[in-house]
Amino acid sequence: MSRYPNPFGSIADDELCSEQFARGEDEKDTLSHFRHEFIIPTKGDLRNKRYGPYRKQEVELGHDVIEDDNDEESIYLCGNSLGLQPRRTREYINRYLDTWASKGVFGHFKNLEGGHPPWLHIDDALKEQTSKLVGSLPSEVVVMETLTANLHLLMASFYRPTADRYKIIIEGKAFPSDHYAAQSQLAHHNIPPSALITIEPPSSSSPYLSTEHILSIISQHAASTALVLLPGIQYYSGQLFDIELITRHCHSLGIMVGWDLAHAVGNVPLKLHDWNVDFAAWCNYKYMNGGPGVIGGLFVHDSHSKVEAAGVSAVDYATNNGTRQLVYRPRLSGWWGSDKSSRFYMENQFVPIPGASGFQLSNPSALDMTSVQASLDVFSMTNMDALRRRSIRLTAYLEARLLHYRKGTPPYKIITPLNPTERGAQLSILLNPGLLDDVLAYIEERGVIVDERKPNVLRVAPAPLYNSFWDIHRFITIFHEACEAVVSQTQSNGGHF
Ligand SMILES: Cc1ncc(COP(=O)(O)O)c(C=O)c1O
Questions:
Q1: Which helix (H) or strand (E) covers residue 257, if one does?
Q2: Staple 376 to which of 44, 129, 262, 292, CB 3.0 to 4.6 Å?
Q3: Is residue 50, in this structure, part of any structural domain at all?
Q4: 3-state secondary structure 373-429
């Protein structure tokens, strides 16, 4: 049993585990209707070997597996990996294609009735909505490049090693791309690999990193550390870090701190500006539902992105033929980060746009931006606080159902913190050794999509925008069946299912 308050009150186990309970929760929840904004693949869609949706006739012609539940919605609990497609995305992308087809380069410049903003200004058009998701000023965010590329660009600006302060602190199980990025930043500055400090969990039986532990490792290396780079939510364990407190601690020790928010954006409310975060980057393809590998986003705190010249604004400077010196945080630059009004003069005078936009390099893919726009328009119909309230209930329900295993001791344990304030939507389930492949095969055959991390972890994430209590009920029914079948098979023949 969890020692945290159960949001469902003192409800009997039988009732909690009933179909009616899940149905009732969905009916009560005022955000349930957002599910209809998304295309939920059917089980037939997933089984179909051809790309695109499943068509009954083809299945009947023997091209595919025939199951009687092909028309049923699948149980998609994998928004922590790839979010589902908003229904409006196709419409927006068609509009983009029509604009390109009918206007060519004019699509960059012309305001078109019923169309999207001119591509030239599409980066500005996404700021306001993005800023609401991360708790920032619109000027502090920009949608650009991809996550790892953005981490590099931000480290190029914020990791300025000196003889005394040169270490980078990350966590020991950082997403490999972050690990490689930090490692290669050290190499880029000719700093030995030993300057990469990793925060390891104190116990080998749990990935949990308490805030005290994190702060103590940072303190231990403070005098020689230039940068701390941490995830808002840890991808493997699902642990949500105390971004505000860790940021404050780093600042009190003179250390810059950046956050990888891949698993946090669109999942939990963030207040990057108020928390004084120096910089952050994220992708838009997980809880953000922008599509596979779509353009990412970044945040740079207002205090770091000013562009100043004694008595002269950036725009004056641009029109002054660059005779005055501008003062701004060093960065790797490209033309899209330069002042819009002078960008097309082609004069080789870099005049950074104040704010996060000044960190852009290239003109962004309008196709990607259009897809992100579709997703942001769904988020804009609600807000992160309301989504979080729903998410806490969904994940608590998933947890309660996981803890209630009918056949004695479950062959798994939850490794995500049980404290709701230390996690987002995702629960990570550590299966007993040897069960993962067979359990996964069993549930996938029955239309359940979750994410596996070898050797023994399943990550299950009810996305607050489109997953339902009913999804969780169906998941648990199939998952428990799978555990029982695989365990009994393993016990009876000592081998695979
Ligand atoms: C936590 C985290 N960081 C970094 C990445 C890498 O992202 P990208 O391939 O968009 O650079 C991912 C991808 O899933 C991730 O989950």
A1: strand 256-260
A2: 129
A3: no
A4: HHHHHHHCCCCHHHHHHHHHHHHHHHHHHHHCCCCCCCCEEECCCCCHHHECCCEEE
In this predicted structure, what is the pLDDT of residue 75? 98
Ligand 1 atom nearest residue 146's Cα: 10
Q: What is the total count of domains within the chain?
A: 2
Range of the domain at 415: 13-30+384-493
Q: Which of 181, 245, 194 is nearest to 221 (CA)?
A: 194
| pLDDT value at residue 55 | 76
For residues 38 and 379, the answer to whether their CB atoms sit within 8 Å is: no
Confidence tier at 278 by pLDDT (50, 70, 90)? very high
- For the chain, helix, strand, coil in percent to 5 are 45, 15, 45
Structure tokens at 240: 């949500």
278 Cα distance to chain centroid? 19
177 lines ligand 1 (CB under 6 A): yes
At residue 66, the pLDDT reads 55
From the CA of 184, how far away is ligand 1's center (Å)?
Answer: 16
* Binding site membership of 260 for ligand 1 (Cβ less than 6 Å): yes
Nearest-angstrom CA–CA distance, 109 and 449 = 42
Question: Are 358 and 461 contained in the same domain?
Answer: no
Phi-psi region of 417 (alpha: psi -120 to 50; beta: other; left: phi over 0): beta
Other Cβ atoms closer than 10 A to 211: 13
- φ and ψ at 198, to 5 degrees? -110, 135
